[in-house]
Design goal:
There is one protein chain. The chain has 166 residues and is an alpha+beta fold. Helix content is 36%, strand content 33%. It has helices spanning 18-39, 46-69, 152-165; strands spanning 7-11, 71-76, 80-87, 90-98, 102-107, 117-123, 133-139, 142-148. A four-stranded antiparallel sheet has the order 1-2-3-4. Strand 3 and strand 4 (90-98) form a beta hairpin. Helix 1 runs antiparallel to helix 2 (46-69).
């Protein structure tokens, strides 16, 4: 995806309070300590189980921190609409939709149940707002849907580009 002429929106989310994160961290450490203490009563495999617990908790903490810190990004170029995640300075786009493949683009209030859908991608954090939009596109003869909160500029440009392709 060519980013030189891309319109980029970063979807901010409500931050968790520092107190919540601090207390959650302490609770996780205490819980891990209790589990390791319980494994000390095992005679033969206590070291292996303790290491496995530390590794598993490390992975869980990484995933939680990534979920808290990362934000969604929307990228709109001349030919593609892209969705990704940004964590710090690192960005990764994991869904690129050619604008010519978008078959439907409307407000979330027009959303209906479609049994032919293969998957729905959600790029919102909380409940849909009145500005939330959804779109449908086809790929490999399957129908997909995406839901996101575009800002006014991306919405206006995307509506114009989709109308041009129809």
């Amino acid at each position: 995806m060519n980013r030189e002429k891309a319109v980029i929106q970063i979807l901010r989310k409500r931050r968790k309070s520092l107190t919540f994160m601090f207390i959650s961290g302490i609770v996780l450490v205490v819980f891990l300590n209790i589990l390791i203490t319980l494994t000390n009563n095992l005679s033969s495999m206590q070291n292996v189980i303790s290491v496995v617990l530390v590794v598993v908790f490390g992975i869980i903490i990484y995933l939680i921190v990534e979920k808290i810190i990362s934000v969604y990004i929307y990228l709109l170029t001349d030919e593609y609409l892209g969705f990704g995640r940004k964590m710090g300075k690192r960005e990764s786009v994991f869904l690129e939709i050619p604008i010519k493949n978008i078959t439907r683009y409307e407000s979330i209030s027009e959303l209906d149940v479609d049994p032919k859908l293969s998957k729905t991608y959600y790029f919102i954090y909380e409940e849909p707002r009145e500005t939330t939009k959804f779109g449908e596109f086809e790929k490999d003869k399957k129908k997909y849907r995406f839901i996101f909160n575009p800002n006014e500029r991306i919405n206006r440009i995307l509506e114009r580009k989709i109308e041009e392709n129809l």
